[in-house]
Amino acid sequence: MNFVIVGYGRVGSRTARVLREEGHDVTVVDNSDKKVDRARDEGFEAVLGDGGTESVLQEAGIERADAVGGLTGDPNINFAACMLGKEYDCRTVMRISEDYRQEIYERYADDVDEIIYPERLGAAGAKTALLGGDFNAIGDLTDQLRLTTVTVPDDAPVVGEHVANIDLGADGRVYAHGREREPMTIPLPGTVVEPGDQLALLTERNALERVRSKLLG
């Protein structure tokens, strides 16, 4: 598959590397000379310019791309890149900050295929979203981190809590939520945990049991 990644910062660079490691073709777009040079030094095709501009995305090969990720720190650039991606029938994934108000989140969510919070989701989730998968999976992320899902029982301590307020400390994070047979997605700020819900977790490998205990009792 072919991907255009707009933004080669912390999230974009890691996402690009993971996609390439899995055999996909990735082109990077960034408006920083240093980041474009770094991407090229690391073996990527890279285009210097504003990722929210059609001519720049055309230079990056958006016509043949399967998905576009707007992963810069600027939501305006990310949104513009995604809207242009839609015009070329690409899957679109947009990065926003966690402190956005719910109505702004919902406005973006209506227009793009997936929204990611890098503070929770990180590049692994961005990669999964770009590939069109859901988050209902168990797997290893690295030698130190683990992705897993849990089902919330009736008497779990987290029942009734807002997903965004669940604090696992340094042991891990809740990065996606699902209800019954619905696909797992990034929860809205007002999402409350109910019995039977599924939570997707990113944890330190040796902390998994502690995290399960905090969440499920």
Automatic annotation (TrEMBL):
One GO term describing the cellular component: plasma membrane
Domain named RCK N-terminal: residues: 1-116
One Gene Ontology molecular-function label: potassium ion transmembrane transporter activity
Superkingdom as given in the UniProt entry: Archaea
Keywords: Ion transport, NAD, Potassium, Potassium transport, Transport
Gene3D superfamilies reported for this sequence: NAD(P)-binding Rossmann-like Domain, Regulator of K+ conductance, C-terminal domain
Transmembrane segments: none
Domain RCK C-terminal as annotated: residue spans: 135-217
Protein function: Part of a potassium transport system.
Name assigned to this protein: TrkA family potassium uptake protein
Originating species: Haloferax marisrubri
